[in-house]
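REQUEST FORM: STRUCTURE PREDICTION
Request ID: SP-0412
Submitted by: Lab K.M.
Chain count: 1
Length (residues): 281
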Amino acid sequence: MGVASLHPISSSGSGLRCLSVSDQAGAAPAAGGRIGWFRFEAVDADDYERYRPGYASEAIDWLMERAGLGPSSVVIDLGAGTGKLARSFVGRVGQVIAVEPAPNMLAVLRESVPHARAVAGTAEAIPLPEASVDCAVAGQAFHHFDGPVALRDVHRVLRPGGHFALLWNMPDPNDPLDGALDAIIDRHVGASPIHVAFDSWRDAFREAPLFLEVGEEYVTHIQETPSTTLAPAMATSSDVASLPEHGRNELLAEVEEFARNLPERIAITRRTEVHLFRRLD
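STATUS: Completed
RESULT:
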């Protein structure tokens, strides 16, 4: 059968929904409860690994070049999930350290990316010494952190002149199937703290002026997948998994019904975006 075009679902213009939500697999609430709305222990880590997309290789190439990374560099992936981003650096830098707080995600991470050093921890309390890292990255995760606290600790572990990169897989606004899926999600998921945090992620950089943004890059890429994977993929997203069980089941049933009317295989169009910051000394 043919391949249909599809992209992850946007939310109120932010582009953050379902397949495009966080790769941060479990944030520990910071003082004040800033990020205590969801923990990824509730998500099936095997499904997370199986259905979540990776990042455009050209975007990683750009990041490597702009951050001056090479065979001797140390890269740390914060909120690493099952290692979707961390694996992009394995074999290209000297050491990849993947920090993940959720035990279920950490177990799959260790299996899926065995050449990364996987450690339990959070972005707010990174288990590394000062000035030990050349580049920190966060793949679809920063909005789950306590931003100002995380930025201070990232600043601590980076070497002078080091870089911090935020990456997201975002929807392609030209994909015609987005509206149909958006309508399904909007019937079941209203505004959430996750969406608010995503829309305001830059506020943390203003509150803690420890970094200078030095570049951004956008790369479109395609994932071909069976249409039957739409519902299980959405089940791994924080805004779906955080719904009450009845509402979550209704949403996923509607997505399954929608998928039955699609071709057997679909092409999901995404745009990897990278925001690169340099540590201010």
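NOTES: Confidence is low (pLDDT under 50) at residues 1-35.
Reviewed by: T.R.
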